[in-house]
TrEMBL record:
<protein>
    <submittedName>
        <fullName>Caspase-7-like</fullName>
    </submittedName>
</protein>
<dbReference type="GO" id="GO:0043525">
    <property type="term" value="P:positive regulation of neuron apoptotic process"/>
</dbReference>
<dbReference type="GO" id="GO:0005737">
    <property type="term" value="C:cytoplasm"/>
</dbReference>
<dbReference type="InterPro" id="IPR011600">
    <property type="entry name" value="Pept_C14_caspase"/>
</dbReference>
<dbReference type="InterPro" id="IPR002398">
    <property type="entry name" value="Pept_C14"/>
</dbReference>
<dbReference type="InterPro" id="IPR029030">
    <property type="entry name" value="Caspase-like_dom_sf"/>
</dbReference>
<dbReference type="GO" id="GO:0006508">
    <property type="term" value="P:proteolysis"/>
</dbReference>
<dbReference type="InterPro" id="IPR016129">
    <property type="entry name" value="Caspase_his_AS"/>
</dbReference>
<feature type="domain" description="Caspase family p20">
    <location>
        <begin position="7"/>
        <end position="107"/>
    </location>
</feature>
<dbReference type="InterPro" id="IPR001309">
    <property type="entry name" value="Pept_C14_p20"/>
</dbReference>
<dbReference type="GO" id="GO:0004197">
    <property type="term" value="F:cysteine-type endopeptidase activity"/>
</dbReference>
<dbReference type="GO" id="GO:0006915">
    <property type="term" value="P:apoptotic process"/>
</dbReference>
<dbReference type="InterPro" id="IPR015917">
    <property type="entry name" value="Pept_C14A"/>
</dbReference>
<dbReference type="Pfam" id="PF00656">
    <property type="entry name" value="Peptidase_C14"/>
</dbReference>
<comment type="similarity">
    <text>Belongs to the peptidase C14A family.</text>
</comment>
Amino acid sequence: QPQTDKEERRGTKQDAEGIKNRFEALGFVVEPYENLTCSQMLRTMREVGRRNHSKNDCLALVVMSHGDEGIVYGTDGIVEVDILLAPLKGDKCPTLAGKPKLIFIQVREFYMKDEKGLLNWVTCQWPFSVPSLTLA
């Protein structure tokens, strides 16, 4: 598996603060998390999926990281987006079934070192969709 040399996303703190302020102004309860490992991201999503969302009208999720099509990076590796979002599906989280899930994934371009230590730039400019995942 290639190792990433990820620079800090410039402007991340300002972006995160702006997003937090906007969602709070819209009446959302915001729970920020920073610099999670892959297992921490997955555990957090499972915990969110196990909550009782009966009194909530919707759920919003913002992921800001490095990534590529269909994947985001934790501090220690890669997580597939469909696996990350699976705990929000109706069969796993019945109190969110039929409710809107607002999913925003912002990834930054990065470069990867291959096994020979050569750098390869990856630019993430793709329309995000997970056609096999329905969050009902």
